[in-house]
Amino acid sequence: MEVFKIFQHSESYFEERNKSLSNRLIFHQILVICVFTFIYGMVMGSYHSLIQSLVAGLKVTFLFLCTLMICFPSFFVIQQVLGSKMSLRHMVIITLSGFVLTSAIALSFAPIIVFFQITGGNYHFLQLLHVAIFVFSGIFGMRLMIEALKYACEKKGTYPQIGVTVFRIWIIILAFVGIQLSWNLRPFLCDKNEEFKLFRTYEGNFYTAIVYSVQQITATKNSPAPESPPGFENIADSSGKLQADSNAIIEQLKDSLWKKK
Fold first, then answer.
1. Which of 24, 99, 118, 136 has the maximum number of C-beta atoms within 10 A of its C-beta?
2. Least confident segment among 113-122, 158-167, 227-236
3. Rg of the chain over all Cα atoms, to the nearest angstrom
4. Structural domain boundaries of the chain?
5. What pLDDT, in 10s, does the model give residues 171-224?
6. What is the crossing angle of helices 50-81 and 88-108, to 10°?
7. What is the value of pTM for the model shown?
């Protein structure tokens, strides 16, 4: 499939994109992103229940597409102001290519997620694992987009050098938008001990939630002292009284023996 050529030959892929920019390719890219993110979301939500799995699949897909739609207009306008000669379609293809790679790498971790879920993975551990996977996948996706812009700048002269630097700032904005949107769409991964909820209304923010999850995993919990079984205190008191009575009897016997002597 044409969408996946970028995984093996990125430079030749960029060259082909400069020659032919088709709406069909854009459609295929969006389709791949939707399918991959939906499957990943289903795997994420399967930790709780089937309904949570389906809802999480839709939420992750919406998260990717909505984040892109919110942030892309600012990216395109700023690049045009900086003197970019790339067309709107060209920029859309480059941006979608990064999201395709991000979703593909994230989906490749699905077997690992299933393994930890089956072997009794802790809720907070799985939460941090998903965050780490999104960060790891996003780094590769954004790196691909930077390479595409550098190629357009150095080989084709259709993109300004300063635009690459500005794009790195745009990546930070993209990350913050994605984080805020994901926080409003929570829960994706629901604790087994909780009932299904379409949306959660807990106070706080994404960062405090991550810190709390880390604390739950790394904090050393002092095991409480074992409780005495019912009636144990009465038995202990009785044994103490018996010991005191026996000692008193022994003392009385000693006194009587000394008197006889």
1. 99
2. 227-236
3. 32
4. 2-218
5. 999 999 999 999 888 888 887 877 888 887 766 778 888 888 888 888 744 444
6. 150
7. 0.75
